[in-house]
Amino acid sequence: MSSEGIGAPVKRKEDKRFTTGKGKYTDDIRMENQAYAAFVRSPHAHAKVKGINTSVAEAMDGVIAVLNGAELTGDGIGNIICGWAISSKDGSPMNMGAWPAMASETVRYTGDAVAVVVAETKAQARAAAEAVDVDYEELPVAANIEAALASNAPQIHENAPGNVIYDWEIGEKDATDAALAGAAHITEMDITNNRLAPNAMEARAAIATFDESDDHYTLYTTSQNPHVARLVLSAFYAVAPENKLRVIAPDVGGGFGSKIYIYPEEIVCLWASMKTKRSIKWTSDRSEAFLTDAHGRDHITKAKMGFDANGKIVGFKVATKANFGAYMSLFSSAVPTYLYATLLSGTYNIPNIYCEVLAVYSNTNPVDAYRGAGRPEASYVVERMIETAAREMGKDPAELRRENFVREFPHQTPVIMNYDSGDFEGNLNQAMTAADWSGFPARKAEAAARGKMRGIGMACYIEACGIAPSAAVGSLGAGVGLWESAEVRVNPVGTIEVLTGSHSHGQGHETTFAQVVAERFGVPLDSINIVHGDTDKVQFGMGTYGSRSGPVGLSAIVKACDKVEVKVRKIAAHLLECNEDELTIGDSQVKVEGTNKALGWHEVGLAAYTAHNLPADMEPGLKEGAFYDPENFTFPMGCFIAEVEVDPDTGVTEIIKFVASDDFGVIINPMIVEGQVHGGIAQGIGQAMFEEVVYDDNGQQLSGSYMDYTMPRADDLPSFVVEHHNTRCTTNPLGIKGCGEAGAIGTPPAIINAITNAIGDNNLSMPATPSKVWALIQSSGAKIAAE
Amino acid sequence: MHNTTYHKARNAADAASLLSGAEDGTLLAGGQTLIPTMKARLAAPTDLVDVSGASDMRGIIVSGNRVTIGAATTHAEVAGSSEIRAVCPSICDLAANIGDPAVRNRGTIGGSVANNDPAADYPAAMLALGATIQTNTREIAADEFFTGMFDTALDEGEIITGVSFTAPAKGAYAKFPNPASRYAMCGVFVASGDAGTRVAITGAGSDGVFRATDMEAALNSNFSASALDGLSVDAANMLSDIHGDSAYRANLVKVMAKRAVTGAG
Q: Model's pTM, two decimal places?
């Protein structure tokens, strides 16, 4: 390992600008002739739009235009689509209702936009938006899954009878039923996965500019995948053909999935810039973010896990209802199906699995992928089930897991996934040692003497990253391929630009990607720049989500580097008059092994561009591109252990210790990985103990600000113990598995397993707030026991 | 935020004059509630009369065990006052746990008392300490001042200039913060002195801050946490929201009261 190469804890190159306030986010950018957009949003969760009176607003100071949904549709702007087709059990296609960027007939959630005001200043735009008079006829509201599925539920989209989008299944139902019928023990649970608001630090924003002189649009926006944005804006929303639309995602302050999707606001800003011939900026504030960002999770699940007399799992049956909100967001359909049910085998050898998923419309924000996207929901179901089963059967929860671990690879699960590698017991052992598992009874007794209920819980998560072979996801309904592209440009002076379709919005690609190239060519880290986030600069890209930038994005860079190396060797062999295989590349030079004959790295670059003396028939220049399509998902896994203390008087839970032992495959920068794990654990603790989007029965958000939506804070969190027991991924060139979501996936079950262990009651739902924990202690009559 | 006209008052009389001359004016002290409300476009006063620099509304005077705090005194100033801490550390501790450093360095005791947010900390202290609220026209006993959620005995245009109270022999404030906002979900101030014991509760009651007279009676005969064991708190008078129902808040009232008594020593 070099001091800057793979495995080196290099400090992040991008942090100089971020920590000195020099980051350039969308809202920092100011275009000439810039005007501001403010949206008129429905205060009702479900209503008919009877009329929109804009006359007062139009006459107000600074107002340039007031535009509505009928005009938008009239100009041929297409409805927002979900890009992954899922079919029901009976083979029928999913029932996708129309989602116009601004509603002209029916509003379906509070925050649904009905009009937009464009004005000279933000204040003028907002004031005029408040003056737009919309005549609504309120309709009955279904604000949650139960209400949407009730027999008297309002019909939210005409083409989704009973508000059902699809009724999907995976696995073998009869075989699973038979296995459960023969089981010696069955554990059954009702499990809720709470709805979350993504809360990226930077709220969404957009600036759209239409250049009349060549009918060209430029959109600066907060996107995790600018090329995907351009693709759907062009192909589906008909804003402009791809060659007339440039999408730039500059510095982006966090996404967690919420910035994958194309939202109404970006579409409307582009269209309005054409209508008004002005650059149009829109920046969400935090209140608007709660109202309009796609939320995450929101599942209700019934699960049954059967065991034989020896404790081996024989069958696992899961029925999940997933809340999709008012409209189908871009990847919404894939989240509770192929990103969820395919992970229900967990880290275990389960011969029979069957899962059915009912996708349901409701009068709430659209729901889509949020850090982990389906895998946290799966991990939560599997790990709460096996933990509860161990308690019911009187078995040690670690032993029950050991008895069921997958131990041979590759391992084909009954639900599509084929695990390539891992040492599940190695991570379990490492975590138990770090947590001093065996010392827990003494600590519990000591806590009991202080009047506290102490508990310990674990979770052995597995997840799927680097989504995935394009042909495979295509056969499962994906509307796009999920490869990645890269271009490596060696300049005449030897410096290198790497253009990647991955997008960095907190992940540190400018450092880690450069580390891989620095090691590959033996050149200084500072001589390498990573270019991303601009459709006019980067050839193409599928963007960053599902921890795919390492396993997929970096693999594309490696492939491009392979091609560069081939040419470098040819040029150097020609100039040094040797065979290509005699050359070694490193220490900023290309050297003939065993001699003092060498060319500086920069001399190779110069030779390629001067082209005075190249091998016959060689093209000048030194730049190569590559597309990489993965052959499989990657499977990061790990064991997390939480130890908590509950105050029985108040229900307050304190996390005393949190241990993570992860298997991420090969790690490029351990410092950045540790940061990713810390953030993920904090988010997982947020879901487990603090965060929940709550709607009242009328579809109004009761948790629409930080006064009521509880984000985890530094003083809620212990100092995390982060360890690694890595096995190399066998399906990509660098052996990387991915680390971006692991913390958010493994943490919730570990925390809830610890709290339920403390209070002696398994019937706890997330978030485990003090009031909820206290009420459970009251109802179960739990006593502080030293055991 | 809507447009507004800002005025800086030199003193309380100046503030009263500026306020009476405004179309729909309001006083601005630390602004820690008012400014966020205006930014959310939920309040749109035509004029803001800033009293944070009003010369006769600032400062701390401790004379024997009598404490007077100017209305424009910030939470950080109360928290850091060695004069107050010498006679009444409980109110310093309370101030030190309001909000975050930014809030504590802008927010004022007068603003908090005047707003009478049902989850604010200071109203519990004022009520338990039997404080006197001084205004530009009169003095009002705390027992008469807090008249319900966000409601006080202040007349239109009346300005709080300060508060005063006699430091109790024993006192403590026990706060259970709302997990999201960190306002009090239940805060109990217990003060015990020559005039007996007073217990005031914020955050939990459905009509704002209130005195728990049954607890006071129990503590007057036996000032110890165990004296409260036999009492029950009626959930019917408690707030209920997504953070906790009325039964939970009733429990918190008792738990926090016992912790306050223990803390008072």
A: 0.97
